[in-house]
Amino acid sequence: MTGLLITFEGPEGAGKTTQIQLLAGYLADQPLPVEVLREPGGTSLGEKIRNLLLDPEQEICPGAEAYLYAAARAQLVNNVIKPFLDQGRIVLCDRFADASIAYQGWGRGLGPQRVKEANALALDGIWPDLTVLLDIAPEAGLQRAMDRRAGLDRIEQEDLSFHRAVRQGYSELAGAEPARFLVVDATLSREEISQRISARTAALLLQKGFGLRGEV
Ligand code: T5A
């Protein structure tokens, strides 16, 4: 049996990390083999690239930014995601290629198709089985991010028009692939969001032949 790749996407502060932890707990209770990863990051090279990308002091042009995210992704796919999937594990990834399409394609204006093409080498045929899109207005998400910690990173510091374009990009992606995306209103309670994600994941697991202990 091959594993499953479930990705989490959304604007800043949408609650991805929170929901990944809740879903990882649900899967571990089944018990199913689950791995939690984040992008950019998850490898030694990826974490170094992450520091560069999020450093507010670092100037990076849009093209270099797109390739840096893709480089971190290539390392993660090759060294971590593919081996986990080959072992039949369920991989939960905090952001993946859709983030590049939304942030660099729409947000930076590089164009979704060009960013998708630039990522083909990094993805090496890997594509999510399910993508959870936590949708939230940028004003509300950025407020959550600011409440959580002092200081915003290089991407969070972009103006509202950038973050609105990112949200629009995500909405277009979800509209184009409704079977892959589960779109959830990120202003609902943590519990309500978690319930919807677990239910959809359970349906996917049963469809793919994974055994589950009970009803969600
Ligand atoms: N990026 C990334 C690109 O531009 N291109 C790419 O290809 C990729 C992969 C990554 C940055 O890089 C960009 C996107 C990002 O700007 P990051 O630090 O990983 O940077 O940032 P994010 O992915 O945005 O993650 P965050 O940690 O900022 O936000 P989360 O994970 O979405 O949110 P979370 O769970 O930490 O929650 C935020 C706060 O809200 C609360 C939480 O307790 C927390 O305080 N919260 C809720 N509050 C009320 N109701 C709920 N339902 C809540 N859920 C969570």
Describe the structure.
It is globular, with a radius of gyration of 17 Å. The protein has 9 helices and 5 strands. Helix 1 packs across helix 9 (about 190-205), helix 2 runs antiparallel to helix 3 and helix 4 (about 95-105) crosses helix 8. It has a 5-stranded parallel sheet, with helices on both faces. Helix content is about 55%, strand content about 10%. It has one domain (about 5-205): Rossmann fold, CATH 3.40.50.300. By secondary structure, the chain is an alpha/beta fold. Bound molecules: P1-(5'-adenosyl)P5-(5'-thymidyl)pentaphosphate. P1-(5'-adenosyl)P5-(5'-thymidyl)pentaphosphate binds near residues 10 and 54.
Task: Please render the helix and strand layout as text.
Blueprint (H helix, E strand, L loop, with lengths): L3 E6 L6 H14 L4 E5 L5 H11 L7 H25 L3 E5 L2 H11 L4 H7 L1 H4 L6 E6 L2 H11 L11 H17 L4 E5 L4 H18 L9
Helix pairs in contact: 1-9, 2-3, 4-5, 4-8
P1-(5'-adenosyl)P5-(5'-thymidyl)pentaphosphate binds next to helix 1, helix 4, helix 7 and helix 9.
Task: Please tag this protein with its features.
single chain; 216 residues; alpha/beta; Rossmann fold; five-stranded parallel β-sheet; 9 helices; 12% strand; globular; binds P1-(5'-adenosyl)P5-(5'-thymidyl)pentaphosphate
* CATH topology descriptor: Rossmann fold
Molecules bound to protein: P1-(5'-adenosyl)P5-(5'-thymidyl)pentaphosphate
Shape: globular
Strand count: 5
Write a concise synopsis of the structure shown.
The protein has 216 residues and is an alpha/beta fold. It has a five-stranded parallel β-sheet, with helices on both faces. It contains nine helices and five strands.
